[in-house]
Amino acid sequence: MKPIPLDLVIKDVTIAAPSTGWAPVIGWLACAGGKIAAIGPAAEDVPRANKVIDGEGGLVLPGLRNAHTHGSEILARGMADGLDLSAWLAAVWPRLDALTPEQMAVAVRFGALLSIRCGITSMVDHCRRNPMSDEVLEAAAAAYDQVGMRTLLAVMVRDRVGANNRAVGAAHLGALEPAHKQLERIAAAAQRLASDRVAIGIGPSASIRCTDEMLTGAADLSRAGGLPIHIHAAESLDEVDDEQRAFGMTAFARMEHFGVLSERTACAHCVWLKPHDREILAATSAVVVHNPVSNLRLKSGVADVPALLAAGIGVAVGTDGAASNDGVDVWEALKYAALLPRRQGESAQAPDSATLLDMVTVSGGAALGSRGVPFEVGAPADFCLYPVAEAPLTNDASFAPALVLSGPRRPSHVVIGGVLVLESGAFVHIDEAETVRQARHLARELLA
């Protein structure tokens, strides 16, 4: 039996990954059938392949996983600066909630290109548009497929209204669709739109913005279809206080009551937690997504990541939407995650560099619904090659800290599913200049 020919080999590189404990290994790697087929040391002969790339001493890392963002917000970077979460939502989202399918496609395509340039190969788009439509979802999924980005499209749902019959947390919205109709749309989309790059998930906006019916229905759909749930939780103190007054319990107690929390659930933010909330998260195996940059930008506070890790809770990292982060740089978010615990001085129990790097790879995969190790033989071939000038200068104990604190920013090559999407700094299948032109035109039109 003849061996299966290799599709791609990257030679003469330094490799670091969870499987190496983030210690650098000099060698080569090979891909076949969209998977990592082999990883070898420099002393071994480099195998033949249909395409061989000389890494010239560069650095290969697993693709980063942005575990929480909102794709359409890329159009509103820098908008509503200085506002807290509530005022910011009221300033930004009335415009973005009105995007047409064509405009949504432009936004997410542009954001995906910027993400790839930052070394991101997979992401969770907590996809919002009110009212949502099949056409908008189809446009977003097709755009991510076109770029080649591995994406969990967590479709945002909300159905709770206040005394004024306006949506809680979104006063510009009128009548909201019933919970069952919103969830039926997600179930149908999961069957119709899922591909080898795009998966569909359930994205309750936040428990305080959802009725009991919505939370119960989301939990039932997740169990029946194995769909991930992605939800904002305890992002601001005002929301935490409002939920306690409205329901007599925390968001986590309420989500646990209705079966929302499980190993399929990722909770974004989790800034304002009670000790019992951490116990619930640990017991249900839900993942927390830390968004340090946007939480500071919107004056929401700082999640206690050391306490979460100490409780045995998986923690991933997200940028949040680009309108509250002003970028899509996971390396930047990771540096904030490393430094913020140190503000307490010697009492800080900051996570070490290997743990932090796992948060943007292993735990990021858990938030996407994948709990495997992201860079080993047999795993999907999602990785980035950075020029040697971007790599740490030494291969000693400072290597992993250097990645966290001065991480490489601009990969020369990006591979997703064994396919080169960025080669020698240029996109292979997408007209980047035209994509940027369309996004600039749309942003000026919407935000003028």
From TrEMBL:
Keywords: Hydrolase. Signal peptide: none annotated. One of its GO terms (molecular function) is hydrolase activity, acting on carbon-nitrogen (but not peptide) bonds. PROSITE patterns: PROKAR_LIPOPROTEIN. Pfam families: Amidohydro_1. Residues 59-421 form the Amidohydrolase-related domain. Belongs to the metallo-dependent hydrolases superfamily. ATZ/TRZ family. This is Amidohydrolase-related domain-containing protein.
